[in-house]
Write a structure and sequence with these properties.
The complex is a heterodimer of chains A (431) and B (121). By secondary structure, chain A is α/β, with parallel strands linked by helices. Chain A is built from 13 helices and 19 strands. Chain B is α+β, with helices and mostly antiparallel strands and 121 residues long. In chain B, the strands form 2 sheets. Chain B has a 6-stranded antiparallel β-sheet with strand order 1-2-3-9-8-5. In chain B, strands 4-6-7 form a 3-stranded antiparallel β-sheet. The longest helix of chain B is centred in the C-terminal third of the chain and has 9 residues. The chains are: A alpha/beta (431), B alpha+beta (121). The interface between A and B is medium-sized, with 15 and 13 residues.
């Protein structure tokens, strides 16, 4: 009898396994495919590698202005893909070793939940006091025929000459940007009026501009029912993710409208002893770091510890410059009737930005009536790193006045945080 | 030809029938110096008299655009997205947005009054 049986070896699953091991709980993990899940094998890791390479290639193509010249710059996608696979393999092996080291039993076959506390797999029965469903998600079905999904695009050996992306969310935006920078002619078709509708408006506008500047054609308000695929293009449908449910006897958990498992905030399903974490949850924003934390929280709950739920959720987009967001956006605060003050600092006068990329960027921060930080939206170099400071402030209820006291290094991108806070404090004083 | 009217927040309004054409004044572009980026509303958005409807980024600062009237945005000057510097070059020839069903222009100033008012401390 195991303390915990986990179905799914992605971020939610393996994080739960490590947490269980750290608490001396016996754990067994079932993963029918590759350890690491979508994140390591088909998502975060390979995509961010390509994003990094695309940036490098683009920067090198432009290095003449910094006095760096070379005879011929060329990109070999086959070679880069090999490197990508090396990285993924190395991380996967490391994960396998760590699980082994922590004495987590790993079964590489598909599991089925038979009943409370009972799992069958490959003809054998396993018993566990608790079951955690962490089976993740897959690409949402395409609204048009003959389209590929992001998993497949990551496997190709040659950069497509023409890429047509359908979708207006982060995956669509990232792939459009990456492949344009690597040489494809890119068209992006969206159903609505604007890309990234769920994001802060300035971010949506900035990224639209950035994509357009790269030469990406954006078609808005598209009706996909009459869509005709152009023969010469590689068609990618990136319209979101859909929960991937485990094989199980009926009635053990409820499934919501979007197809995900319904749970409470911590991850309990309607059946005691059966939990869910990560993308498989109905309320999931499809973020690996949140999936990891959800996996850990379930284990803390099982271990009888107090579980704190409310922490800021950071979201990032990796195009050439990073985007990062946490907390409330202005539109959201307005809708919910939450009074706020917002301040935006541009990066034009940030020394570190001028030194490196000289690109337009901004840091926007929101504070509530009590002067506490309630939102941050960044489009600038290293946004994905700088955002953590804001998440810390929000989680700890830190005010603008407290946050501004930190003396950030010079020259740095994060200095712009101090500048944004100065504007914010001044605006708060005016209210 | 209708006369241009001005708000204390340095926005001019030119009325064309039921539609108002909005832009920034020369005083505004001078104070901003090099304009790098313009954030404007979408067509179909509502703007509200006295409320922020967008902003202009210059090298040194971000300045909110305060609406001098209320109404519905019918057109946005897309040229400014690629060439924001046009606002520095010719602020009266490069409009920001066009707005329909605009509210009263009663509180706005004529050019002479505006020029005098901005010189006042």
């Amino acid at each position: 009898m195991y303390d915990l049986a986990i179905i799914g070896g992605g971020p939610a699953g393996y994080s739960a396994a490590f947490e269980a091991a750290a608490k001396n709980m016996s754990a067994i993990l079932f993963e029918k495919s590759d350890l690491g899940g979508t994140c390591l094998n088909r998502g975060c890791v390979p995509t961010k590698y390509l994003s990094h390479i695309a940036r490098k290639f683009s920067d090198l193509s432009d290095s003449g202005k910094d006095g760096i010249f070379f005879d011929a710059l060329r990109y070999d996608h086959e070679r880069s893909k090999k490197r990508m696979e090396e990285i993924v393999l190395s991380l996967r092996e490391g994960l396998k070793d760590s699980l082994l080291h922590d004495k987590v039993k790993v079964v590489s076959k598909e599991a089925k939940i038979v009943s409370e506390g009972v799992i069958s797999c490959n003809g054998e029965k396993y018993q566990a006091k608790n079951i955690l469903i962490a089976t993740g998600s897959e690409a949402a079905p395409s609204p048009v025929r003959n389209a590929h999904i992001s998993d497949e695009l990551l496997l190709i050996n040659k950069i497509p000459e023409k890429l047509h992306v359908i979708g207006g969310g982060t995956i669509a935006v990232e792939f459009s940007s990456i492949f344009r920078m690597l040489g494809s002619e890119v068209t992006l078709s969206i159903r609505g009026d604007r890309i990234l509708r769920k994001w802060d408006r300035d971010i949506s506008i900035s990224l639209t501009q950035s994509l357009k500047k790269k030469g990406i054609v954006i078609n808005r308000n598209c009706d996909f029912s009459s869509f005709k695929k152009n023969e010469s293009e590689y068609l990618l449908s990136a319209t979101g993710r859909r929960a991937y449910l485990p094989d199980s006897e009926g009635g053990l958990f409820e499934v919501g409208e979007k197809g995900g498992i319904i749970t409470d905030g911590i991850g309990r399903t309607k059946t005691p002893g059966i939990f869910a974490a990560g993308d498989v949850r109905e309320d999931s924003p499809d973020l690996a770091h949140l999936a990891m934390e959800q996996g850990r929280r379930v284990v803390r709950l099982i271990a009888g510890e107090e579980v704190k739920e409310n922490t800021s959720v950071i979201r990032c987009i990796y195009t050439d410059q990073e985007t990062a967001s946490a907390g409330l956006a202005e539109a959201e605060a307005e809708e919910r009737g939450i009074p706020f003050v917002s301040a935006k600092q541009t990066m034009y006068s940030n020394a570190r930005t001028m030194i490196s990329s000289d690109q337009r960027g901004f840091i926007k921060v929101l504070a509530g009536a009590d002067r506490r930080i309630i939102g941050a939206h960044l489009y600038c170099e290293h946004a994905g790193e700088i955002i953590s400071e804001f998440a810390l402030a929000m989680d700890q209820g830190i005010t603008a006045d407290e946050m501004i006291r930190t003396v950030r290094p010079h020259p740095s991108y994060s200095e712009a945080v101090t500048e944004a806070l100065r504007i914010l404090v001044r605006k708060l004083d005016e209210v | 030809m209708a006369e241009r009217l001005f708000s204390k927040h340095h926005i001019w309004v030119l009325k064309e029938g039921d539609t108002g054409i909005l832009g920034i004044t020369d005083h505004a572009q001078e104070k901003l110096k090099s304009i790098m980026f313009v954030n404007l509303p979408d067509t179909g958005d509502m703007i509200s008299d006295g409320k922020r409807f967008g902003d202009i980024e210059s090298i040194k600062t971000v300045s909110d655009l305060i609406a001098p009237v209320s109404g519905e945005v019918t057109e946005v000057n897309e040229e400014l997205i690629d060439s924001p510097e046009l606002l520095n070059d010719a602020p009266y020839d490069n409009w920001l947005i066009k707005v329909k069903n605009i509210s009263s222009l009663e509180d706005l100033m004529d050019e002479e009054t505006y020029l005098k008012s901005k010189d006042d401390p």
